[in-house]
Amino acid sequence: MSGAQTPSELPGEGVPTAQKSSWTTFLKSIASFSGDLSSLTAPPFILSPISLTEFPAYWCERPALFAAIADAQTEQDRSIAVLKWFISTLKGQYTSRNEKLGSEKKPLNPVLGELFYGFWPDVDGRGQTNLVVEQVSHHPPITAYYLSNPSKGLVLQGHSAQKTSFSGGSIIVKQIGHAILTVDLPDGGKEEFLITLPRLRIDGLWYGSPYIELTETSYIQSSTGWLSTIEYKGKGYFSGRSHSFKAVLTPPESTTPVKRYEGVWHETSKDLDTGETFTDVTSIKEEVTVGPIENMHEFESRRLWQHVARGIREGDYETASKEKSKIENEQRQRRRDEQAAGTPWKRWHFEHIESDPVYERLVKMFNGSPPTEDTYVYQHNYDVTPSAAS
């Protein structure tokens, strides 16, 4: 079921008959839970076979759009290219599990130190784009990532975490974190873009067919002063369609938009000034390239979760649950051993910084909130190349 579909009228209609009892129990536990819902154990049939550690790959499902940012000639054109690329990443991040699995599924909670490496090869001169991801915290769960296209002079570095709560029959997800996109300019300078993250609302729980809507507003602030403001609404607002958005681009020292865009982020949108198509994500996306599982490090996502993922995909929820518990118990024991030995876990690739100076500088330009945020800085100690990934 996609976000645009209407749920059936019967409670739990989207849940397998054999699983309705555990789904009802899960809903009751959500409704009565006062803390962060991410710590709740979901029934296996509602789980996705993909770990959250893989999610940063959604930033580059359309690598040509990412590479095109570097080809823009003016500050305004670069801001437009960044907005176009960003809107085009939303479908993969927030509806792909609906389309593949019938309804929104809960991603697997990564373990501390979980890793994901991948790349998108050079095609038609766009350059190779590389990805390094690490689960840098378990409580709270935080994923750090570094996406780079060296030949185009593009780097996206960021981290994300989620705080979830239950309200009005929906799960509300506050995304914590941000991304900084750095563009090397032909004159030797750099342009930076702060990208904030939208909030989510997961609807359709009562029907057993969850789907995600984006809510409120997110921003893309350039160091040159150009600002993109993206407002998200669900069904019954702008166009009466799910996944609707409006975006405006304003120049430095101004509150008057010079460009306006509108549409649905999981299909198409248009430039309201020209009537031309702005984004179109109805074509097939490009999956990230990874190496064979047998060559992966034991902490790499697809090797770590391979038996859980197979159980979920095959509907063998007993095996999925057993394998998932095995991984979680091993992690708990690892933490106990570290505590007893007085040797805390050491991150593989990222260093924690209490306050991100780039975030602090750019968030002031549009009076964003919060005024400061921490970050995780990549240490450039892994080479993602075709030879390394094969």
From TrEMBL:
Residue span of region Disordered: 316-343
An example molecular function term from Gene Ontology annotations: oxysterol binding
TM spans (from-to): none
Record's compositionally biased regions (Basic and acidic residues): 316-339
Pfam family, one: Oxysterol_BP
GO cellular component labels: cytosol; membrane
Superkingdom to which the source organism belongs: Eukaryota
InterPro entries linked: OSBP_sf (IPR037239), Oxysterol-bd (IPR000648), Oxysterol-bd_CS (IPR018494)
Family under the similarity heading: Belongs to the OSBP family.
Protein name, as recorded: Oxysterol-binding protein
Organism (species): Dichomitus squalens
Classification of source organism: Eukaryota, Fungi, Dikarya, Basidiomycota, Agaricomycotina
